[in-house]
Amino acid sequence: MLGPSPPQMTEPEIEAAGSNAEGSINPVRLAAGLISASIIILALYYGRDILIPLAVASLIGFALNPPITWLTKRGLPRVLSISLVMAVVLALISVFGILLATQIRSLAAEFPTYQSTISKKLTDLREEIGAPGVFARLLQTVERVRKEVTEPEQRPAEAAPPPPQKVEVVGQSATPIEQAMLWLGRAAKPLATASIILVFVFLVLLDRSDLRDRFLRLLGRDVHRSTDSMQEAGGRVSRYLLMQLLVNVSYGVPMGLGLWLIGVPGALLWGTVAAVMRFVPYIGPLISAVFPIVLAFAIDDGWSMVIWTVALIVTLEIISNNVVEPILYGSSTGLSAISLIAAAMFWTAIWGPMGLILSTPITVCLLVLGRNVPQLQFLDVLLGSTPVLDLPSRIYQRLIAGDVDEAIDIAQKEIADGSVIAFYDETALQVLRQASEQHLRRATAEHRLRLASGMDTLLEELRLDHPAELTAAGGRVVCLGGKWEIDALAAEMVAHALCLEGVAAKALPAATVNAHYVANLELEGTETVCLSYFSENPAMQARHLATRLRLRWPDLKIVIAAWNAPEELLHDKALPRLHADAVVTSLQEAVSRIHRLVDPEEALTAQQAGAPENETERVDALHKSGVLDSKHREMFDAVSKRAADVFDTAVAVISAIDDETEHFVGQSGKLPESVTDETGHVRPIPREEAICNYVVANGTTLVVPDIERDPRFADNELIREWGVRFYAGTPLRTPDGLVFGALCILDEKPRSIEPHEMALLESMAADIVSEVTGAEQSEGRAPAGPKAVATGGQRVPE
């Protein structure tokens, strides 16, 4: 008997189910995207007569806006500023045009004199090529084969008919008026396009604010994201054009001077052509190099001028590509090489030669939109040069694909810029976290085998490349994997990291919770055991194993490394229930905690912040600067209030550290009464107990996402009184390199901070030093922070 038929799903339900299905692609959305892309491409192609002038005008507007803004800030009306800048540009173009026309006329008058030299060289080349030599017999053989294949077999035939007579129709010659009209018709379209571009440039510069508002509205209702997109796109394109102009001038001027010294006629012309043609990607430099080489071939009876000209061009290309461009553009390109080439081909096919010139600026704008507009994020994936997968995901993918060698190469490159412990903590543990999350979701048995064997090879390679030299005294540490094989892999990393820190440690295979396993463990002489777990709730397993270990070895210290532990396991109240001495969540915390358990005095000494090399000079300059005087208190409090508001933190302070004490010269936010005096100001604290002491000692920004998880500060009673969990401090550094103290933001909850936010905090710290010492900072701002690291392509300034 048949059961009831399943309920039918409506079309909206089917579409929703398709979009929500894991790993599925919505066919309706895909079809809509393809149709939209086709319509856009057709509109770009058929609307090129209108869009090209608009694009060129916008590009020129980006280039001319900085001087116009500079003049406007000096009190000149914007209309007058635009007219003045455009008049200067047109005058310069006219002057260069007259000079180039003079050069062309001179070359045209002298060119007939070069005909004899060209004929003689061609004759000599023909004779040298035709002379018997090594390839003569080969050429004869090829020619004989060609004749046998292509020429028909000769037959004794009838007399060939006479060839047909050529008839030529000679038309009536055009009158001067008709020739003039023909030339005018050919020049009408370029002149009309240039006039339209000129009008568009003026309007774009005049109505810049209104156009910006309209673009912001088109980009969506998120004003913050749209504003960032507009500013980034405008800044990147403007800097790109300026840097491109400087690169081209730095190439064209030496080119002209070099050709003049060599003796090539029209050196000014060819230097200008070389500078202008470099605006055309890829083929521009090649085209500009042809003319001087051909001219040197035509005028010189020998070959020395040609050789010197070629050597000059090659030398300038090498210097420009490898020295000038990296200095002016910086180390980041922003766009991948393949995206630039593909974009150049696409825009050339759509808009012709002008599309090739505009391809890079347009691609930069599309990249910025892809980074800031979620719906266009695919543009960032397609065009950007930054890796689309983070480092742990890249290594994880290589391992499950069986490409262990590439995974090792990626790891070694990362370690070369940092350390093995940092790689284990920030990358390798993330790889194992992904493995634990995907273990029963998408990973197959083959994937799990490849990951386990690949990680074994990777860790073995790192142990060989970075052997541990045990110099610290202390008891042995045993690291055990709690349950899975990935737990044991993490235990191996902890053991290697401890050995690198001078603590003798070894790793054992994954444990099983039974008496037989514990009875067979050889822990004689071991002081500490680290149990590794990736389980999201390892409390029961860890408690059972810790209990059995305690029964067998009562004096054993147990540290539970709960890599994915819930918040309730991280409090001190959970330690008695787990029968453990400490619970850690990161490898760096595990190393620090275990080091303190094994050798407390040595670990405490190693984790103390030292004094900078210029300590005496720094303290003297601090007292002379007036930072500790109360006259700056109001200003420091205002800056602290602004920092707390900008970064949305509970507390912000400005501290200054002398030889023995940390003084809080500015503060904002509600602080416990136990740390303040009767006036509400934070009491000074000993220098050795201050977090900011690490900022002063190292002279770099310090970020502590969770103070309770950092052994350097978790046991500090004075810091606990503050009731804060997050700390970020940047040094107050003078132009002489002396660090007076730090600008700090603190919060009641653990949190993270983005690189651009750190750059903003450093900028505010620079403003404080500038205000107190009178030292000028560059426009009162620090650098905007690092951008994405590039991998190739035409350089685009950040």
UniProtKB/TrEMBL annotation:
Annotated stretches, region: Disordered: 771-798
Signal peptide: none
Chief site of localization: membrane
Record field: transmembrane: 28-45, 50-68, 80-101, 187-206, 251-272, 279-299, 305-324, 336-358
Domain GAF per the UniProt entry, residue ranges: 631-782
Keyword list, A-Z: Membrane, Transmembrane, Transmembrane helix
Cellular compartment(s): Membrane
Membrane topology: Multi-pass membrane protein
Entries under InterPro entries matching the protein: AI-2E-like, GAF, GAF-like_dom_sf
Superkingdom field: Bacteria
Family, per entry: Belongs to the autoinducer-2 exporter (AI-2E) (TC 2.A.86) family.
Protein name per Swiss-Prot or TrEMBL: AI-2E family transporter
